[in-house]
Design a protein that fits this description.
By secondary structure, the chain is of the alpha/beta class. The chain has 2 domains: 160 residues, Leucine Aminopeptidase, subunit E, domain 1 (3-Layer(aba) Sandwich), CATH 3.40.220.10; 315 residues, Aminopeptidase (3-Layer(aba) Sandwich), CATH 3.40.630.10. It is 32% helix and 21% strand. It contains 14 helices and 20 strands. The strands form 4 sheets. Strands 8-9-11-10-14-18-15-16 form an 8-stranded mixed sheet, with helices on both faces. Strands 1, 2, 3, 4, 5, 6 and 7 form a 7-stranded mixed sheet that branches. Strands 12-13-17 form a 3-stranded mixed sheet. Strand 4 and strand 5 form a beta hairpin. The mean pLDDT is 96. The structure holds zinc ion.
Length: 511
């Protein structure tokens, strides 16, 4: 899909479909809906007047209504796209509105879509960005393995903006970059385990890096042994597929000042998780191809970083393996030694994500990372704790969390901080080793997983994102297909960008 930004009056633009955002401006809770258009065009208001007065369209979020041959407007069709209440309108509704417009056009076989830039009090650069994110994300359907797939692709989406502005130009470009990055993540997560092995994940990552100019190194078994990554290796040893340790490096064009932060993105890349010897039940196991969604998020984020070019050095470490039961597989009761030297008693081989991450986090530190973030589909327990609306966030540093949350109004993603304080440490005490890989009870399972990771980050500021409940959308939405969500890409990118001011020479840093 091509995307275009034009500075043109929407009522004179010739297109098969022109989308106009609409809100319910009723303020009283019990008042009937008062749908209105986020437009200043008298012609468009006039063309939509009858529908708006009919009561058929309430402008709820994701609702659409189509007006054919609108009088006084050059478009063949007007599509009114509901964004919900005006009083609660935020960037996220506009992102969803952009997606809704596209997904309304697709089944109609239309190839060209135009979207009128909405009149809102929100910053126009951000508005342009989120609409293009929504449009890009909505383009994807997960039917690539269907032999009878119908071509419902949109060829061009045009954003029609009122008057030329650098902010809108930038927002438009960034929206396209972030959507493409998040779609890369989603396409990787969608791949079946027999297609996307650790080796193939390494190849695809290397191909992406070559395309956008990132340094990429892909290692396997030998390197794991050389680095003494006993925890990572233990997970991979039961699979016929060799593991992949993928290291991507982004260097800003101008070298950051001495002592500037180096950001480390560490991803869990289990391309299929059977649970190993502690095997999972058959029901729903097919979904465990998604157990590399944390790695996918980091690969997508690195793609966006390469294109957005923040002045911050970023290193990403991906730990990819397949967790299989086999004669050579690791077993409950085994004791393994992590790269950091800590010994780990294996209680449950299905708690493998934290094992690969423990070596990944430690390795990222040895590469010079001063701030760490990891993303992982780590625990089912996080869905019990938070449901499927918030990512579980854990950290050892409040300032780092503040930097992360400062980007959320723009990224539109939801995170909820859970504790990982020292009083939980007893949960992972082992009788015979330094620590064990699951808690002594099943309570607070996401927290004990975070406590385990915390053992390997030391004093380095660190955030852990447990995306297990959020990496896959079970239900389709009017703005998005069901399947991989690509969660965390946008928020991680904003977090990295939040360190830009700290890479300047101290003399130039804003006070
Ligand atoms: Zn597992």
């Amino acid at each position: 899909m091509d995307t275009k930004l034009l500075y043109q009056d929407p009522d004179t633009f010739i297109t098969p479909l022109l989308a106009i955002f609409s809100v319910d401006s009723a303020t009283d809770k019990d008042a009937p809906p008062a749908p209105t258009l986020l437009s200043t065009s008298a012609a468009i208001f006039k063309a939509a007047a009858q529908v708006l007065a009919s009561g058929e369209f309430k402008a709820t979020l994701g609702e659409t209504i189509l007006i054919h041959s609108p009088i006084g407007v050059a478009a063949e069709r007007l599509l009114l796209v509901g964004l919900g209440k005006l009083a609660s309108l935020s960037l996220d509704e506009l992102r969803k509105g952009g997606g809704t417009a596209l997904r309304a056009a697709k089944p109609r076989g239309l190839r060209q879509v135009a979207i009128a830039f909405p009149e809102t009090p929100l910053a126009s650069a951000s508005v342009a960005r989120v609409i293009m994110e929504g449009v890009g994300l909505a383009e994807i359907d997960y039917d690539i393995y269907k032999t009878d797939r119908k071509d419902l692709s949109i060829h061009t989406t045009t954003l029609l903006a009122p008057e030329k502005s650098v902010g809108i130009d930038t927002g438009f470009a960034e929206g396209n970059i972030l959507a493409a990055a998040q779609n890369l993540t989603r396409s990787l997560v969608n791949e079946p385990g027999n297609v996307l092995t650790p080796t193939v994940l390494g190849q695809r990552t290397a191909a992406m890096c070559a395309e956008v100019g990132l340094k990429c190194e892909v290692f396997s078994t030998e390197k794991l042994h050389e680095l003494k990554m006993g925890a990572f290796w233990s997970v991979s040893q039961g699979s016929a597929e060799p593991p992949a340790l993928i290291v991507m490096t982004y260097e800003p064009a101008v070298a950051p000042a001495e002592g500037s932060p180096v950001i480390g993105l560490v991803g869990k890349g289990i391309t299929f998780d059977t649970g190993g010897i502690s095997i999972k039940p058959a029901d729903g196991m097919e979904k465990m191809k998604y157990d590399m969604a944390g790695a996918g998020a980091m690969i997508g984020a690195m793609r966006a970083i390469a294109e957005l070019k923040p002045p911050v050095k970023v290193i990403s470490v991906i730990c990819s393996a397949e967790n299989m039961p086999d004669g050579k597989a690791f077993k409950p009761g085994d004791v393994v030694t992590a790269m950091s030297g800590k010994t780990i008693e294996i209680i449950n081989t299905d708690a493998e994500g934290r094992l690969v991450l423990s070596d990944g986090l430690h390795y990222a530190k040895t590469l010079g990372c001063t701030h760490l973030i990891d993303a992982a589909t780590l625990t089912g327990a996080v869905a019990i704790a938070l449901g499927k609306l918030n990512v579980g966030l854990f950290s050892n540093d409040d300032a780092t969390v503040e930097n992360f949350t400062s980007g959320l109004p723009l990224s539109g993603e939801k995170y909820w901080r859970l504790p990982c304080t020292e009083d939980y440490r007893d949960q992972i005490k082992s009788q015979i080793a330094d620590i064990q890989n699951t808690g002594t009870t099943r309570y607070g399972g996401s927290i004990t997983a975070a406590m385990f990771l915390k053992e390997f980050v030391g004093d380095t500021p660190w955030i852990h994102l447990d995306i297990a409940a959020m990496a896959w959308n079970d239900e389709a939405k009017p703005w998005l297909a069901s399947g991989p969500s690509g969660v965390a890409v946008r928020s991680i990118v904003e977090w990295v960008r939040s360190y830009a001011k700290e890479t300047l020479d101290p003399a130039h840093r804003a006070q």
